[in-house]
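Shift notes (night). Ran Hedgehog/Intein (Hint) domain-containing protein while the centrifuge was going.
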Amino acid sequence: MFDIKTRRDASRRSEEAEVGYGSDTDLGPETALSGIVAGTRVATAVGWRNVEDLEAGDAVLTFDSGLKTVQNIKRKALWDGNGACPSRFQPLHVPRGAIGNREEMLLLPRQGVLVESDIAEEELGDPFVLIRAEALDGVCGIARRRPIFAPEVFVLEFEEDQVIFASSGALCVCPAAGDMFSRLFSRSQEATSDYTILSQETSRELIEKITWELEEKWAFALARSGQAEGGRSAARQQEMRTSR
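Came back to this:
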C-alpha cells in the first residue's frame, strides 16, 4: 500500500546533549514550534490521510513498531495570528524528495526528523540519526517560508515515542507525551531515546557532513529525474515524427 521501509536493520544508540531547549509550552498555549502542520498526509491503517482528519483511536503506521494506536491529539495554532508570523515560528518548506518525502511538505523548526546517512553509520554505527528540522534550513532546497495565515498544528501522542511516515516517506517523530525533544535535550532529565540524537551545540561538525551527503544524494536524484524526463520527451518526439 505504501512502498516504504518500516523496519530498521541497524543497531541503535543514544547520545545525551548538554543543552536544554525548552518546550512549546514555554511559549504559551497559542504557539507551536513542533508538531505536524495541517494538510500533511500521514500513513494509517487505511492509507494516507491528512493529519487533521485523524482522531484518537486511529491506527498509524510507525517506522519501528508497525501500526500503533494514537492515544491523544493536541491541536494548536502556529502563532497567535496577530501580525506577521515571527521568524522563529516560520515553517520550513521541504521540496519533494529532499528527506525521503515524495510530495512537498512543511516542517516546524523543532519538529524531529529521522534521516538516513552513510556517514552517520560510519561514525556512529547507526545509519539513522534524529535531528531538528531547523538544522536542515538551506539544505536540499529546504527554506523557511512565512505563512500568510496561522495554520493549525497537530501533535499525535502514542503510548511510547514513535516515528511516523508523513508526506509519502518523510520520517517524523511523535511523542509519548509533551515535546519529545525538550525531554531528550533537557539538562534535568536523562536522555533515554533509542535513536542517535544530534544537536547543533554538540554535533555541529557531524551535522554538516550529513547535510552535505544529503545535498549530494538530492542533486544526484534531481539529475536522474531530469535525464528520465529528457528521455521520455525524446521518445515522445520520435513517436510523433514516426506517426506523421
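The longest helix spans residues 200-243. The longest strand covers residues 72-77.
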